Amino acid sequence: MTTTTQYYVASSVDGFIADREGKLDWLMQFGFEEFTAGYEAFLAEVAVVVMGAETYEFVRAEGHAWAYPEQTAWVLTRRDLPRMEGGHIRFAQGDVRDLHAEWVEAAAGRNIWIVGGGQVAAQVADAGLLDEIVLTTMPVVLGAGTPLLPVGTATGALEVSGTEVLPSGAIASRYRITR
Ligand SMILES: NC(=O)c1ccc[n+]([C@@H]2O[C@H](COP(=O)([O-])OP(=O)(O)OC[C@H]3O[C@@H](n4cnc5c(N)ncnc54)[C@H](OP(=O)(O)O)[C@@H]3O)[C@@H](O)[C@H]2O)c1
Fold it and tell me: Where is the Bacterial bifunctional deaminase-reductase C-terminal domain (predicted)?
C-alpha cells in the first residue's frame, strides 16, 4: 500500500474553515453527517493525523474527548501546550518536509490526514507533499474567516472525483493534486 497525504476538511462556499471569530457554528448547524461523507471508511485507512496549534487548541477548548485514539498524532507548535488524554500525541516543530518523512515512516503504508488548519495544510501543499483534498463545501457564505488553503504557490488544475451532493446541499468531492 502507498501512503496518501490527505487534507480532509469542510469549508464554506467562499473557502473558509472557521468564521471570523474562529468558530465552527456555521458548520455544526448542518449536523455531523453532512460534513463527514465517508468518514468511517476514510479514517480506517488513516494511521497518522497532523494538526496545527490553533486547531489543537480549538479541539481542547471544546472539551471533547480526543477523537483519534487509534492514530499517531503530530501537533505542530512552538508553544508548550498541555497534552490531551486518550491519544498518542507528539508535539513537533520545524520544516514540514522533514516532518513529513517521519509521518510517512509512522504511517507504514496507511494514510496521513492533515486535519488542519489551513496554515499547516498550506505548508504541506507548498512543499509538494499534499496528494488529495477531500473537501465538503457547505452551503453557506461567511465573508471572512480562516482560509481553507492559503498556499504561497498556486496548484495546477486539480483532478476531481467522487462528487456527491448531500441532503443539506453540501458537496463532497475529492481533488487530486497532480505534480
Ligand atoms: N472546517 C474544518 O473542517 C476545520 C478543520 C481544521 C481546523 N479548522 C479550524 O481552523 C482554525 C485553525 O486553522 P489555522 O490555519 O488558523 O491554524 P492551524 O494550522 O491549526 O495552526 C497554526 C499554528 O500552528 C503552529 N504551526 C504551524 N506550522 C508549524 C510548524 N511548521 N512548526 C511549528 N509550529 C507550527 C503555529 O502555532 P504556534 O507557533 O503558536 O505554536 C501556527 O500559528 C481553527 O478555528 C479550527 O477550528 C476547521
Answer: 107-163
